[in-house]
Amino acid sequence: MSSTDTYGTESHKKRAMDWFSRLRDDLCMALELIETDVEGPNGSSDLEPGVFQRKSWQRPAEDGTDGGGGTMAVMRGRVLEKAGVNISEVKGEFSPEFRKNIPGAEADPRFWAAGISVVIHPRSPLVPAAHMNTRMIVTQKAWFGGGGDLTPVFPDDEETALFHRAYKDACDRFDGSYYPKYKKACDEYFYLPHRDEPRGVGGIFVDNLNSGDWESDFGFIQEIGRSFMGIYPQLVRRAMDLPWTAAQKQAQLIKRGRYVEFNLLHDRGTLFGIKTGGNTEAILMSMPPEVHWP
Amino acid sequence: MSSTDTYGTESHKKRAMDWFSRLRDDLCMALELIETDVEGPNGSSDLEPGVFQRKSWQRPAEDGTDGGGGTMAVMRGRVLEKAGVNISEVKGEFSPEFRKNIPGAEADPRFWAAGISVVIHPRSPLVPAAHMNTRMIVTQKAWFGGGGDLTPVFPDDEETALFHRAYKDACDRFDGSYYPKYKKACDEYFYLPHRDEPRGVGGIFVDNLNSGDWESDFGFIQEIGRSFMGIYPQLVRRAMDLPWTAAQKQAQLIKRGRYVEFNLLHDRGTLFGIKTGGNTEAILMSMPPEVHWP
Q1: Does a structural domain hold residue B292?
Q2: Among A20, A29, A52, B7, which residue is least crowded by beta carbons within 10 Å?
Q3: Is A131 a catalytic residue?
């Protein structure tokens, strides 16, 4: 990885955080539009169109100084039963037990990290749940990570192909090797070994991205967000007006249990956040609103 | 700890397993009786009294030979929305990563383990959830573990006192030092650091019990099960006929989310079982039937 003199500078941090904020604004608007446009069973319900509510939190740093913080945006909608779009910018020092596992943190435990995290649990079992996040991290090294993936209750070949096509296009604009590599990483990551089941139908999963060219990597990270905003609302609109059965709803509530199991047993971001004293409310915003274990 | 020539013999294993089976039978009967005796809103519902359904599973050993197995008993009742009583007797070899953390397994990885595990999630938010388990483990050493604890949605001083009194009496019959020590261990164990909340109102938590006197320790372990059977059905009957509100039910569904978080993030038995290829269905029988993350 390159020196933080040229990759992960103060200017880079600011531009990344500005992007995460702007993407948050755009995504919230796109998702709120869905809420007003819906017809069918979602739209004809007694529920009002959802609107995002924002709530900020502060993170006390290890030495009591400013450790940054974040803003949660949560919508309880009629189409999107629970949608969370969190951004955060935090800084501090990794505790000794984590230093050896974080690139660049062994000699100097200070870190800066910023990102956006999106988790969407639709009300209809025919509309796929989705997750997207991108992040920039700076220790004595600097890198990006992120990705997007889809979790339908009833996988649909066309829907899956559309989602993957969006991410393949995003990847191919930067490097022809990216899509196959990051798709495979996604399949490997979002997998429940104790169930011998994938969490969903995949997408892409990127970690430790540092090509040496910050501008290019930042462009790719932005593209991950833009592609999500381009494709996911379309997939929602494709299915949101369809009626569903009680059996389909029950299948969704059970499928959500797998989502909970994955996030609490396996998800590195969730476990890292919980164990390092992160903001519990923001971290566990990913939990589905209603879940059954039959 | 004593030699397995005198503590954890083949005869001891058989007697322990026989006890776990008998306790399972007695507990299932006591819990089914509640289902037929109920009046009030639980009893006047359209639901039929619950009956335990049993299902056995086998565990393939590491070398393909017989690794033992277990029997799940699950009841979907009208008072006890989901009650699970599992017994198991398994044997095999600990994988290298676990050997160093298990007493007596470093030099010889073979183990035998048997136990009973009980998790009860009542339908009424006014009836406390409960957990009890006892186990005997034999490696090159041998020991017992177990305990019982209560998780009400709305803690009630009298109910809590009755539960603790039962376990204090059980402890005091064996050693005056047990109750304070095991109550403290329970409070420390069933705690969610990320929420800064206890899981429930405690009970007792015993691990690595080997006084050198197998008969006495086995007597105490039996007493943990007997005390649970003596007190928990009474606590259910105390509250099961009371009407509850939608707000109380919603509080229960949220409280159950904390239960899920504890079990998947922190519970050593759950994580150990999941990571060592245990029977997923039996391990995750502890999950509540319906959960909300608001």
Answers
A1: no
A2: A29
A3: yes
